[in-house]
Design brief:
By secondary structure, this protein is α+β, with helices and mostly antiparallel strands. The chain has helices spanning 4-21, 111-126, 140-148; strands at residues 25-34, 39-44, 47-53, 64-68, 73-78, 86-91, 94-99, 105-106, 109-110. It contains three helices and nine strands.
């Protein structure tokens, strides 16, 4: 069996050398965002860069991507130090966070489960009138909820 510590040292050395080559980071300002293509236009100290990816995409689309606010400061990095391969490293403010997954859990609460419940409640609120006993018109609760939700 080979020297594991030597193999590990060689692998780490390769990773560090790659990271050093790709560690150019420059501040810029977000000028425009193309959400469907996950790209943006930035002003990097007077130089305008177009179609800068908001995130490195592995596969066909990102699972999580922040949509930065127009005018916010961002950090642009260049993959492998190549000035033709810019990408957003981070932004100061985001207007939206797009997440593509089956469920999100926040402090023990499942958004998927809560969304299913909300959808069911909206179907009741916007559905057929629920008659109150002896009244024949939509229930006061149904009308109040519909009004509160501007439906």
């Amino acid at each position: 069996m080979g020297d594991i510590s030597g193999e590990l040292e060689g692998a780490l050395s390769g990773v560090i050398n790659t990271a050093i080559r790709g560690s150019i980071i420059i501040d810029a300002i977000i000028m425009e965002v193309d959400e469907p293509s996950f790209t943006c236009t930035v002003n990097m100290r007077g130089a305008i860069l177009y179609n800068v990816p908001l995130k490195v995409i592995i596969g066909s689309k990102p699972s999580i991507v922040g949509i930065p606010k127009i005018g916010t400061i961002c950090l642009v990095t260049f993959r492998d130090g190549n000035t033709h391969c810019p990408q957003i490293f981070a932004a100061h403010e985001y207007g939206k966070l797009l997440i593509d997954c089956e469920d999100i859990e926040l402090m023990g609460l499942s958004l998927r489960y809560n969304n299913l419940n909300l959808t069911a409640m909206l179907n009741v609120i916007t559905g057929a009138p629920i008659s109150e006993p002896g009244n024949g018109s939509p229930s006061a609760l149904q009308q109040a909820l519909s009004t509160a939700l501007n439906l």
